[in-house]
Task: inverse folding
């Protein structure tokens, strides 16, 4: 066993390069496993808009059905995401402070944007202000969610230790 | 900067694949490693035991409800060995004048 050796003259440069490429591929597999697909953002967006529209309809039956659908949808989405998350946890160091800030900023923008639009429209006496506010949030989720995933993926790939040179 | 340190134990292709997966994770589920590396349960168990015996990997067994779950994580020694091995591979390549930087 040569666990303590510094170098190995039996390994050719092309074999070493191939091993490094394999390492990058494996690490990319872990990073890719951490992200949710685009449809997830559409489902989240549809759920929040659907709930707001149901509540603003004022119809008890619609509110009841809308709330039930919202709860069922959120629970199903969370269960799906949780099952995925239990397969592997990406190393925290790969996300780094930039990734953490990005996630917090996106969450703040989405929630703050929705509330801001909803309250602003409400103050201007625009009907269905909550639905429109949530629609704005949903657009942010659908447009920004995949962008957030792509950006976080790039950050994580950049933060891989060792193999990035 | 990690000092180059070629590690024969890690360099074996199957173990290198396992350690590479674990190096990017805090921990990984047994099934995730098995599916991504493409090993049978018994083959993966054998490789993980070898890495555990070397002090490179920690195996954790737990229960989710009534279902047993096995996960693996690199130890500090395993992470240091992996970083040293990667540095050694890079040195071999750079000595030959080829670029190892990802595209």
Result:
């Amino acid at each position: 066993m040569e666990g303590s050796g510094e170098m190995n003259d039996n390994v050719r440069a092309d074999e070493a390069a191939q091993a490094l490429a394999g390492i990058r591929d494996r690490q990319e597999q872990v990073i890719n496993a951490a992200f949710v697909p685009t449809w997830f953002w559409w489902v989240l967006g549809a759920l929040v808009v659907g709930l707001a529209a149901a509540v603003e309809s004022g119809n008890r039956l619609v509110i009841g059905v809308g709330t039930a659908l919202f709860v069922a949808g959120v629970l199903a989405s969370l269960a799906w995401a949780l099952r995925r998350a239990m397969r592997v946890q990406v190393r925290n160091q790969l996300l780094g402070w930039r990734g953490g800030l990005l996630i917090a900023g996106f969450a703040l923008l989405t929630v703050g944007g929705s509330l801001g639009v909803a309250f602003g429209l409400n103050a201007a006496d625009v009907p269905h202000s909550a639905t429109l506010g949530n629609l704005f949030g949903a657009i942010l989720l659908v447009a920004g969610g995949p962008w957030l995933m792509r950006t976080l993926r790039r950050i994580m790939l950049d933060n891989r230790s060792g193999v990035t040179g | 900067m990690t000092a180059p340190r070629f590690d024969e134990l890690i360099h074996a292709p199957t173990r290198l694949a396992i350690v590479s997966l674990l190096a990017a994770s805090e921990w990984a589920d047994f099934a995730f490693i098995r599916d991504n590396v493409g090993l049978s349960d018994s083959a993966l168990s054998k490789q993980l035991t070898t890495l555990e015996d070397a002090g490179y990997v920690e195996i954790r067994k737990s229960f989710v409800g009534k279902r047993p779950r096995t996960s693996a994580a690199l130890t500090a020694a395993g992470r240091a060995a992996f970083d040293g091995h990667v540095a050694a591979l890079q040195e071999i390549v750079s000595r030959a004048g080829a670029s190892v930087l990802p595209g």
Observations:
- The longest helix of chain A spans residues 92-123.
- The two ends of chain A are 27 Å apart (CA to CA).
- The interface with chain B takes residues 1-8, 11-14, 16-17, 19-20, 22-24, 26-27, 29-31, 33, 86-92, 94, 160-165 of chain A (CB under 8 Å).
